[in-house]
Write a structure and sequence with these properties.
By secondary structure, the chain is of the alpha/beta class. Helix content is about 45%, strand content about 15%. β2, α3 and β3 form a beta-alpha-beta unit. α2 packs parallel to α3. The longest helix is centred in the first third of the chain and has 28 residues. It starts with a helix and ends with a helix.
Length: about 220
């Protein structure tokens, strides 16, 4: 057991060192990096596709997306009109910083990562493994949908505590589901007090303007403009 713990520490240290190198790189290029995490079925890809659609005419953006298999999500994201690069992790339930670095090089024919205003990372659908691996992001966004239960933050407190922003998706289904908004916000607050939260529907556009304005503000802050 002690040997396994030591190996895990070494893996995490190597990941964190590489993540810090990526963070320094993007600090130099003034590229905002946004890491999206959620469980499967939260609507992460559709939310990101709509986000990219709304931003692509004003900012230089691209996405790196991770899944165990297939390039389906990258294909969907490209429908926004912005470039997207797929990472197939096969048996891995999360992305690691070395994969981000490799993807940046592999995607050089699609986009120049150092010339971007925003690089989005759509992590593998998982709220456990993703909590342990820094990817060099500026902002980690944890997503939960109205269909998943208002106690989701209480079940997965580590990822919510580690994240900077919470996005609640599928608000268009809230009434039909009998969604308890107060209870969801209370759950988020109990895990991470004063966490900034966005309530959105990628289908109807509800809340998307507020989310887009937030991203533009963060881009301006990082670029110093």
């Amino acid at each position: 057991m002690a040997k396994l713990v030591e190996i895990r520490k070494q893996i995490l240290k190597k990941n964190d060192d590489l993540a810090q190198s990526l963070r320094q790189r993007f600090a130099t290029s003034k590229t905002l990096v946004v890491n999206l995490v959620s469980s499967p079925g939260t609507g992460k890809t559709e939310f990101l596709k709509q986000t990219m659609t709304l931003l692509k005419d004003e900012l230089k953006i691209a996405a790196i997306v991770g899944d165990l298999e297939t390039e389906n999500d990258a294909v969907r994201l490209r429908q926004s009109g912005a470039p997207a690069h797929q990472i197939e992790t096969h048996n891995m339930c999360h992305l690691e910083s070395h994969q981000i670095g490799q993807a940046i090089e592999e995607a050089a024919d699609k986009f120049d990562a150092d010339a971007l205003d925003i690089l989005f990372i759509e992590n593998v659908g998982n709220l456990v493994c993703t909590a342990s691996f820094d990817l060099g992001e500026d902002i980690q966004v944890v997503m939960v949908s109205t269909t998943e239960g208002e106690d989701k933050p209480l079940k997965y407190p580590t990822i919510f505590h580690r994240s900077d922003i919470c996005v609640i998706t599928k608000m268009d289904l809230a009434e039909a589901l009998g969604y308890d908004r107060d209870q969801m916000l209370k759950s988020v607050e109990s895990v991470k007090p004063n966490m900034q939260t966005f309530e959105v529907s990628a289908k109807t556009g509800q809340g998307m303007d507020t989310w887009i304005d937030f991203l533009k503000q963060r881009v301006a802050e990082k670029s110093g403009s």
